[in-house]
Amino acid sequence: QVSPALRTPRLPVWLCSLWGRHSVLFGTDSRLLSDWKSERIFHLYFYSGQQEQTRTAHLTIDTHSHHWEEAQRGGPCSPGKSRPALEMAIRTKWAGATVSWNGTEPFF
């Protein structure tokens, strides 16, 4: 029998398959499951279990930023540059969101 907590998670968790590798994207704020207002700026963590990842990546997601603000910062997601697969996966839930890797070099 499946535990009720597995059917209704207490924290947001997404299982990902990027480039044929399985990984997990998760948050530590339970409000992301029930309060849409918490989806303005929030933090997610990414773990792939791959050898090249030495620690869990801490990501900051901003769902109300604008593409021209990102272009001014000259970040890795500036127009004309390719975006990491993980960022594209995140944008399937939060279209147009910007993703800050907080000093970690994007590896997916």
TrEMBL record:
Keywords: Hydrolase, Protease, Thiol protease, Ubl conjugation pathway. Its EC number is 3.4.19.12. Residues 2-103 form the Deubiquitinating enzyme MINDY-3/4 conserved domain. GO terms for molecular function: cysteine-type deubiquitinase activity; K48-linked deubiquitinase activity. Coiled coil: none annotated. The keyword Protease applies. It catalyses: Thiol-dependent hydrolysis of ester, thioester, amide, peptide and isopeptide bonds formed by the C-terminal Gly of ubiquitin (a 76-residue protein attached to proteins as an intracellular targeting signal). It is an enzyme of class 3 (hydrolase). It comes from the Eukaryota. GO terms for biological process: protein K48-linked deubiquitination; proteolysis. Belongs to the MINDY deubiquitinase family. FAM188 subfamily. Hydrolase that can remove 'Lys-48'-linked conjugated ubiquitin from proteins. This is Ubiquitin carboxyl-terminal hydrolase MINDY. It comes from Rhadina sibilatrix. The gene is Mindy4b_0.
